[in-house]
Every structure is written in C-alpha cells, then in structure tokens.
Predict the structure of CAS1 domain containing 1.
Amino acid sequence: MAVLAYSLGKREINQHFTIKNAKLISLAAVVLLLFFHTALRYYGGEDSCEWLLSRGRFLGENVWQPYGCMMHKYKSNEAKTCLSKKRVVFAGDSRIRQLFYSFVKIIEPERAEEGNKFISVGKKKFKLLKISPFTLQEASARPDVLILGAATWSIKLHSGSSETLQQYKSNLTAIASHLVRMAEQAEVYWVLQDPVNEGMLSESRKMITNEQLDLYNDAAREVLNSSKYGGRSRVKLLAAARQAALETIINSDDGLHLPEGTRNVGALLLMNSLCNKLVRPIDGSCCQTISPPNLFQKLSACLFLGAAVVFVVLHVLGYNRHRRPVHTDAESLEEKKPTAASAPLGPKAPFQALCRMGIIMLYFYLCDRADVFMKEQKFYTHSKFFIPLVYILVLGVFYSESSKEAKLLNREQTDEWKGWMQLVILIYHISGASAFVPVYMHVRVLVAAYLFQTGYGHFSFFWLKGDFGLYRVCQVLFRLNFLVMVLCIVMDRPYQFYYFVPLVTFWFVIIYATMAMWPQVLQKRTNSSGIWHLGVLVKLLGLLLFICFLAFSQSFFESVLSVWPISKLFELNGSIHEWWFRWKLDRFAVIHGMVFAFLYLVLQKRQVLSEGKGEALFPGKISNLLLFLSVVSFITYSIWASSCKTKTECNEMHPFISVVQILAFILIRNIPGYARSVYSSFFSWFGKISLELFICQYHIWLAADTKGILVLIPGNPTLNILVSTFIFVCVAHEVSLITNDLAQVVIPKDSMALLRKLGAAGVVSLILLLLSRGDQLTPGT
C-alpha cells in the first residue's frame, strides 16, 4: 500500500492516476464502507455485546480477540469499582466453578481456588451455587448477575441417553420463563458447554462426548431463543468461551476441565460484558454506549456546516476564483508552495477548505467516536514489525534518485529522513512493538531525531535569515498546531494527548526566544568579527543550564506548569506527569541539533567541508576514520539497546546517548559523496506530510485513541490494512494542503491585521477555557 500511495506521484502514470483521483477513490471507498457497516448492523441485528459473547479468535497464546470490538484487561481496582454494588451468583457444575474462581481472581489475584464459596467485594457478595444434575437452588437474595450452565452431570449420570436430553430440555423450558423475568432487572448469562478432549477422559466420563455436548447446547439455544421470548430472549448466551476452548481443550489435564488461560478468557468476557458500560475503558469498545456530543463538538459541527452553506452560496453567486492556480510537480505530484508574488486567495477558498476539513473531521468522528466501524486489539509478533519494515526499506532504496544539491542535510535528504522515520513509527504503532524493549529504544531515537531536526532546522533559519517577525512565528505555530487544535475539539481530547505537537511547539518557542533575545547573533554579524561566535556559545550554554535546572526537580517543574491557564497545554487526565516524562526523555535532543547546526554552518562558511557531488565530506583519511567510528558507534548503540531489560532502566540513559546514533547516522549518510548525491523520492514524499501522518494515525488508522486498530474490512486483516492505509495517507495529504491554504488566510502579512486576528483568537480561546473550566467545576459532572 505504501508503494501504491507513492506511485501516485510517478511521472509515468500521472495522466491516469493522480493524487486527486486517489482522494476521490478513497472518498468513494469511505461512503461504500459506511453503507456496508450500517447495513451489517441493521440487518445483522447484532451489537458489540453480542459480538463479544458470541465469537472471536486467538491472536496469540491466551490473547483473545472478540469479533469487531476490543476487550479490556481489567485490573483489580477497576473490577472492584464496577462490582462493588452488585451481587453476583454462579450456578452450575465443576466447570462453572472454574469460571467462578477465574472471575474472582480478576478482583483478588492472590485468592486461592480452594476456599470459601462466598466472596465479598465491598458490601456485595459473589456466591457459587451447585446444579446437580439440574436443580437451581434459590439464593437468599435476588442477584444482580446470574451466570449458570450445566450438562455434563446429566450426561454422565444417565450415560448420554436420549430420554435425559429430553428431560434436560423440559427442565430448562420450565425455568426459562423465570430466567427471562429475572433478566428484566438483572443480567443473566447461560454458559454454553465447552468441548472435551475425548481421548483424555477417564473411564467414568467416556460418555461425555462432543456430540452429546453439541446436542445439549442446541437444546439450550432452542429454548432460550424460543419465539415466545421474541426470538431472542434477554438471557445472554456465552458462546465465545466455547469457541476459545475448541482451540485449547487439547491442553486440558483431564480432558474435561479447561486450561487456566482459557478459563481466564471466559472470565474476561464476562467482566467486559458487565463492566464496560460503567468503567468505560478506552481500550474496551465491546458493550460500550456512545457518549453524546458535548457543547464544543456541537459548535464545531455548526461551524463546518456554516462554512458549507457560505461556500455553496458563493459558488452559486459565481465567485469561482477560490484559489490561486497551483502547478503540480511532475515527479512527486506535490502541489508546489505558492510564491509570495502569487495572486491572493479568492473569497471562496477558506470556506472550501473548511468544507473539506469538515468532511475529514466527520470521518475522524465516525472512526473513533461513533459506533460505526469495528476495532481490534493490537498484538505484537516479530513478523508483524520486521516484515513490513524490510518491505518499505527495499522500496525506499528502489526509488532512489539524484538529488538537486549535495549539501549536508539538504532539503531532499531531511524530507527523506523524516519520511522513513515516520513509516517506521507507523509500523511500530500498528504492530504494538512497544512491548518489545529493543524496538522501543530504537524508536525513541527516531523521536529524538525529529526533535534534533527541529533544533537544527530552526537554528539554521534564524542564523541565516534573521527573520524574527511575528508573521514567521505565527505561520510556524499555525502549521504545527492547526490539525491538533481541531482534533482537540472534535475528538474531545486534551492538547497534551497529541504529545509530539506540544513538544515541537514548546521547543520552537524556546529556540525562538534563545535566538531572538539580545544580543541577536546572526551569521552576517559574525562575518565582521569572530568574537560573536562566543555570543552564540554563551546562549547555547544558558539554554543548557535552563534545561538542566528544569530537569533537576520534578516537583518544581510541575508546580511551574500547573498554573491555570497554561496548565491546559500540559495536562493529561488532570496531571502533567505525562508531559514531564515526554519532555525529560528527549530534553537534550533539540540543543544537540542547535549545536550541530552551529558547528556545521561555521565549518561551511570557512569552507572546511567539501560538498560537491561525488566528493567526500572531509579529506580522505579523516572521512575514513569518521566513517569507521560512526559505524562502530551505531552498532554499539544498537547492541546496548537490544540488551535493555526494562524501559525504565534504559530511559534513564536515553537523553544522554541518543545523540550518538543520530550523529552516527548523519555522518554515515553524508560523508560518502555518492550517498549524499542521491535520495529516496519514496521516503521524501512521505516526509513532506510526516506531521499529518503522525497525528492522523491516532484516529483513522489506529483506533480507540491508538490503543487498537481500525477495522474497515472485517475478517481479512491484510485487506483491511491495505484499504485503511490508502484512505489514511490520502487524508493526511489533504489535511496538509488544507493547512497550507488556511495558513495564508488566517495569518496575514499585514502586521495590524495579524494583531487584530491574534487578539480575537485570544478572546475566543479565553472564553473556551472558561467554559471548559466551568464544566469541570459544575457539581455532578
């Protein structure tokens, strides 16, 4: 799919399959998928609760994936919160007893299986009753949850006779009406009989065959789904546990009772069915109801609808000059950035851009806030990460082209660098590779490298251009934050949730303050006197001391940034601990990039470097020595990262040594002249939209706020990834264009007009902050 997305930009097909056509195809695909999933829900008559209880598959050992939704792994405190006011009764034979103990172990993991059959949680109790062979004992109080099932004793005591099956069916029919009435005020589950491993059964159990169990399960389905209960009774059938047992009963110790891992699957299925509505875990989409849109989401919908109305009116009135003519790059099919001399955008352009953004935000909302598309859990395997990684690296090398210039870290090379890093990070996220510490540590270096580029790029711009104007600052901040700000409102998420954008925004402001403060030391000033270089070094040293001072005390750091209203920029779930973790982890990466940029630009100015095409960066012996040291350093870091035992241990070292692999890569990539003279146009294409790819993945490629995977094509994981990736890349590209269009309208070059817009934006932001703070302070909310 990556090669398809890139091939949109190749010259040989640009007359038949352009990026614009690709976006139209993706829009048509989304519409068709919406109809498909809506019809599936309407005509299938099932919701995510029925999916959870009825079917699924194993992703790996003891990792169960319900059909179409995500199952949360409950912790003890979550389970106690959910069940503290519920009386839960298990009634059945020895296999129900096993399920009972597995269920209780979620709440109290240290509890042994042998012991009291009454378990207290808060003021409520869990009770285990016995059905033998089919007599339901009355509990002393009506339960809130009843979980029951039986058949093996009936089969065993009567040797599987047909008369016993009829008696079983009659007994079940007799109590079915009582169960249905009970289900009107409580939750009642009938556990279908798990299979047996007939070859391992003892002689006294040989009559319990899978054929007999299927007959008893069919009888239970027939009675409990009888037409006199409306064709589908309120009694819920737990069939997914049986499906899981079909794959694992071979590991049973006695052929009858399930392995512990499979019993735990059944217990988790019940816990998710009971508790997801109350606890509302983000990674537990099964059985969750959809929250109604809040005030801000409704206002954003009104804004987009209003923009659509204005756009239609302007179109009808004939205002057709809505954007300047845009020419397409023949190689990449990227729309070229408009020059300053181009004609201004017409009155229709901003409303058209908002219409396009509104359609995209509707897709975001449907994917990750509405109960329309399915979601699945992540599950890491080495093949899921490394096979796609090898695939994209081969493609990147295959689509290599000569670069227009051979300077160190030229624009094509930095786009390439951002592109392949972003693709690796995407594979890392969708494969769940954070569970594998060596991969996690290498990806941490990629994040540090992005921040390194932030320091390098902004320092170089300010050093060479000396442009500290408000227009430049607002342009950068708008382009970085526009998408995230919209998502914060539409998806009801705090700014800090999209942690990378706050990081690069924070560091841009720090770089700007460092370079803009008196004395402003620029390259043209150092041309007259080399003493000004000391001024830059003093500023960099001051920045380093500032970083060290903030990192010295977490309590001081949090107290400074916890003051309202700036706390809104750094809080996640009411705390800035996550911001502290993210900031501290890569706190030196930006200053590393600034120092590197300073040294490089000084060496370049003094003509120490050879940057002609095909020329080594340094004289022969120095180049060979640096190349050797870089390769050794790169490999040494990888060996160290691969030997990490825990994330915590290695994260302590990461801020100090991540620069080693970054510098090693830069030197390996740039010292040989032939390597510096080529670049991968494949990676570079993705690098141009790397920020949009990073942010959009949260909701329209991944799901449940990155905890799961979006499922557009159920039942076919490979095809699903291909389709969702194609749509995802097209959306990210379109968002990049929309951001560029709106930046020209929202950020005018006229200083007074810009100040007026900033003042209006400040007032609106303050009102929104006050409204959100009022909602938090309102009792009962």
